[in-house]
Amino acid sequence: MSWRDFWNGEHSIYVSPRHKALHYRAIASDLMAHIPAADAVVLDHGCGEALDAARVASSCGRLLLCEAAPNVREKLRAQFGRKDNITVVSPEEVEALPEASLDLVVANSLVQYLSRDELKALLETWRGKLKPDGKLVIADVIPPNVSPLTDASQLLAFAWRGGFLTAALAGLVRTAFSDYRKLRAQYGLSTYTSEAISELISEAGFVDLQRPTNFGHNPHRMTFKAAKPN
User: Fold this and answer.
1) What residues does 222 pair with on adjacent strands?
2) Please, are residues 1 and 69 in contact by the beta-carbon 8 Å criterion?
């Protein structure tokens, strides 16, 4: 099983429907804070189920939802297929987009599932698809010193605030015996120091690198924002 296979099937990453809804609501709000204009063309690369995408789409001109898992793409099309300004695409379709056609690219909680070479290739693709002065936001990057225990504690804190603590405790037990834990042990997750990923972003030709607040509930992970030069 690969990470794509995992996300393409049934899993228990979200401990309850409330957890999933609150997660995607928070991510949507964080993404919307970076939309530069009401007519912006936005790519959410690695969007997952993107439950709150309609709200994001109401804040921009066009929203492209990119997901590698075919089953997830079908769910997205079933949910948002009638929205005129939402388009669901595969990674291959992102590569086929016209050059300089995007105002904003967001990749939240994606790079940990990519190899260094895969990330470098995506950075090149994103740079080509962005308009001059278009923005790239890479969120939820895991530093090497953040352990699964830290992630678990942040989930419990989020669950306490969100009213699903009992479900979160049960979910952590399920995760301990799940395919996610097995895959994480087998393949690991890609981690980066701030300096290492900043260097990759700069080497790809981006400028004006910033460190905004991280997306989602875990402040121990990192978000980076950069621009394509004019």
Assistant:
1) 141
2) no
When divided into structural domains, the chain yields a total of: 1
Instruction: Spell out the residues 6+ positions from residue 141 whose beta carbon is closer than 8 angstroms to its own.
Output: 111, 112, 192, 197, 221, 222, 223, 224
- Residue 133 is part of a domain; what is its CATH number? 3.40.50.150
pLDDT in tens, 138-169: 999 999 988 888 888 898 898 899 988 888 88
Beta strands at 86-89 and 62-66: parallel, antiparallel or unpaired:
parallel
Q: In this structure, which amino acid lies at residue 206?
A: F
Rounded alpha-carbon distances, angstroms, from residue 130 to 59, 100, 137? 19, 5, 12
Sequence-separated (6 or more) residues with CB below 8 Å from residue 63: 42, 44, 53, 56, 57, 85, 86, 87
Torsion sign (Cα): 48, 53, 57, 60:
negative
* Residue 176 CB-half CA count within 13 A: 8
Specify whether the CB–CB gap between 46 and 64 falls below 8 A: no
What is the phi/psi pair of residue 114, to 5°?
A: -115, 150
Q: Give the mean model confidence (pLDDT) for residues 31-41.
A: 98
pTM over 0.85: yes
Indicate the DSSP class of residue 40.
Answer: -
| Full domain range(s) for residue 129 | 3-227
Measure the N-to-C terminal CA separation of the chain; round to a whole number of Å: 42
Q: CB of 191 within 8 A of CB of 144?
A: yes
Q: Is the dihedral of CA 21, 90, 190, 101 positive or negative?
A: negative
> pLDDT tens for residues 64-87?
999 999 999 999 999 998 899 999
